[in-house]
Write a structure and sequence with these properties.
The protein contains one helix and twelve strands. Strand 10 and strand 11 form a beta hairpin. It folds into two domains: 64 residues, no CATH class; 106 residues, Immunoglobulin-like, CATH 2.60.40. It is elongated. The termini are far apart. About 2% of the residues have low confidence. It is mainly β.
Length: 200
């Protein structure tokens, strides 16, 4: 959102983005012409996600984004604060109890290809759906733990199944995927699933 002085409401303005605190001269064009009504809703195109969620260091996340509004060569003053555009992660499986996990057997964990700069993901399991400990391997005492610390994110659609379920029997298990070096970037959680021992 923005406010303008001296620019006709019926005029069109351009909106640009810089992921480096405005130091790179706003190279990413959001839109070249939109009405000067003070508001524009931008749905980030999938093809743009890597560009707008990357910083000068390609392994890190840009938390230094700034927006510029332009009209006939006149630009707004740089905003005093920066913001972050987060990549998007989506967990595909397990998200319910349709296929219970069995202790001692592999469980297949799937996710969609990330939108944005997420080269590797960390995978965690929780036995109560709310506790996400750093125990490795996961244990009942810790209420879960880390399944894998760094998995190539492109593996998501085919599934990661290199982990055999440890002895963490529960009917309230949940899996979480997150960006390996930024646990604030996670996929929305699915539902509970069952971890059980096979007795036959």
């Amino acid at each position: 959102m923005w406010h303008s002085v001296g620019v006709p409401p019926a005029a069109n303005v351009a909106i640009d983005l810089d992921t480096n605190s405005g130091l790179d001269n706003y190279p990413i064009q959001i839109i070249d012409a939109t009405p000067n009504d003070g508001e524009y809703i931008w749905v980030i195109p999938p093809a743009k996600y890597v560009e707008v969620t990357s910083s000068l260091d390609p392994t890190s996340l840009s938390d230094k984004c700034k927006i510029r509004i332009r009209y006939s060569g006149i630009s707004n003053a740089a905003p005093p604060t920066t913001f972050k555009i987060r990549p998007s992660l989506t967990l595909v499986a397990p998200i319910d109890n349709s296929v219970p996990a069995e202790v001692g057997s592999p469980i297949t964990i799937k996710w969609d290809l990330p939108l944005g700069n997420v080269p590797f993901v960390k995978i965690r399991i929780s036995t109560d759906g709310t506790t996400w400990p750093d125990a490795n391997p996961p244990t009942s005492a810790a209420k879960g733990g880390i399944i894998a610390s760094s998995v190539d994110s492109t593996q998501g659609p085919t599934g990661y199944s290199a982990w055999n379920v440890t002895d963490i029997m529960t009917n309230t298990a949940k899996v979480r995927i997150e960006k390996s070096n930024d646990p604030s970037i996670t996929a929305p959680l699915g539902g509970f699933f069952l971890c059980q021992r096979n007795y036959y």
